[in-house]
Amino acid sequence: MINTLVKNIKEKNAPIVVGLDPMMSYIPKQITDKAFAEFGETLEGASNAIWEYNKKIIDATYDLIPAVKPQIAMYEQFGIEGLIAYKKTCDYAKSKGLVVIGDIKRGDIGSTSAAYAVAHLGKVAVGSNKIAAFNEDFVTVNPYLGSDGVNPFVDVCKEENKGIFVLVKTSNPSSGEFQDQLVNGRPLYELVAEKVVEWGNQCMGDTYSNVGCVVGATYPEMGKVLRKLMPNTYILVPGYGAQGGKGADLVHYFNEDGLGAIVNSSRGIIAAYKQEKYAKYGEACFEEASRQAVVDMLEDINQAIGRA
Amino acid sequence: MINTLVKNIKEKNAPIVVGLDPMMSYIPKQITDKAFAEFGETLEGASNAIWEYNKKIIDATYDLIPAVKPQIAMYEQFGIEGLIAYKKTCDYAKSKGLVVIGDIKRGDIGSTSAAYAVAHLGKVAVGSNKIAAFNEDFVTVNPYLGSDGVNPFVDVCKEENKGIFVLVKTSNPSSGEFQDQLVNGRPLYELVAEKVVEWGNQCMGDTYSNVGCVVGATYPEMGKVLRKLMPNTYILVPGYGAQGGKGADLVHYFNEDGLGAIVNSSRGIIAAYKQEKYAKYGEACFEEASRQAVVDMLEDINQAIGRA
Prior knowledge:
Two copies of one chain form a homodimer.
Chain A: H1 2-12, E1 16-20, H2 29-39, H3 43-61, E2 67-70, H4 73-76, H5 79-95, E3 99-106, H6 110-120, E4 124-126, E5 129-131, E6 138-141, H7 147-160, E7 163-169, H8 176-179, E8 182-183, E9 186-187, H9 188-201, E10 211-215, H10 220-229, E11 235-237, E12 261-265, H11 267-270, H12 286-304
Parallel strand pairs in A: 1-2, 1-12, 2-3, 3-6, 6-7, 7-10, 10-11, 11-12
Antiparallel strand pairs in A: 4-5, 8-9
């Protein structure tokens, strides 16, 4: 699957991913009004509004981008109905040729991680049938439980040609609380990075591994070190835009081939119409604002890494 | 919510929780046959089999136990249909007076953790309505992202009188890979434990905090140290039974008041009929085997901690 992601990135000259993390407050009034009129102010109403909103954003941007990254928590908060919108969003994005990175941050003991891996990347056995439940292309994985919590995901990646991104250094302000703690003089996230390389060696694509990692845009110095520590590991980079990361900060997340990193923006794209810069589009044309924000993000990043 | 859990534990003299982690291979043939006949070998068929299985186990054990702990991964692998069974199981257990500990091991950056907290412990805003989606009483939380990933859960616990159990030292064989790494001469899990105390101080019940922790039964020496480090923190203890933990190993997870820990058994209870010890019940009376396994587990643990 990493080969497909790299191919998409090259073809579109776009090392970016759009985070589909819908908040009700982002969704334009014309969409929520319609959904609430049909389904009421219910979980079903919210779910339908989210789905319509996502669909319009995908339709307006899919030709420019290689992938989307729906954040499952934003759907899970609307319960079963919300997860139906998550599934519809994943399926629709795939039908548009996009790689789907499910941002699920799951991770547990072995047998339980195996169930999560099956849920999101594999197929579950029911009687004599094998059925894919959510069927994303990649998912994010939390490494706190160690190798036997990650290996079941790697196993499914091998069987199904799927991929994962393991949290190494997250973008949030207090990520250092545990991740930066020094172990024999080196931060814990470097130990995790070394394990990511080990896990990834079992599951290589052509140049990069199907086991990638997550390193936040908000820690560029650490990104530079981690890039060197994991030369064949794709880095999923959250924290660009709304969280403070800029294109110029991201140069060292990439390898010299211009590959090796994929930068996520969520709010900055999907709620672009709320920014002064894109105010002219208004709520009515929110998806055109999203498209322009993708164009601008691409220019910012490609210029920084010398691909513009 | 910790007060309710403690009250249930005292009333039933039962510091245990039954893990509702259904695998298809555990479910007796009479149940899967019936579900597949009605719904086919589909996700819906699997989901219905799981629900019937859980319901019978709850009916056969609820008067003996204070709580159940459904592991959401085992449902998520069956997609939307599986999560419907999860929700039905949680609701049914609550209707029987049981405390429901959702073993979800979520955790993310602040705004995303807030969405998970709302999904599982709180209420989501839809227009002018506030709606509870999954509505467990407690959930488990992964601390790898640090305080700003945990605090949104603590905030919802305060608002809604709910609780969490934060992973400190997990029961799996490779949990030490990162959790045991020494930071200034002390294992990382002790640093996490100190943070658990800090988070918990914001959210106290009468004696214990609504912020509990997870420490595996498989590491009794560490459990002893952690017990002292977190005197007012309830410890959820997985790893008893099938994973190798025994009652005698668990003495030091409890405080002198005989409280402070709640021991989970999943397979050992729900698939008891598959053990030689309970073979006489057979598949047909699997729920009676589960009941007897609860009785035996209670005796083992209460004897070890001097409550028998």
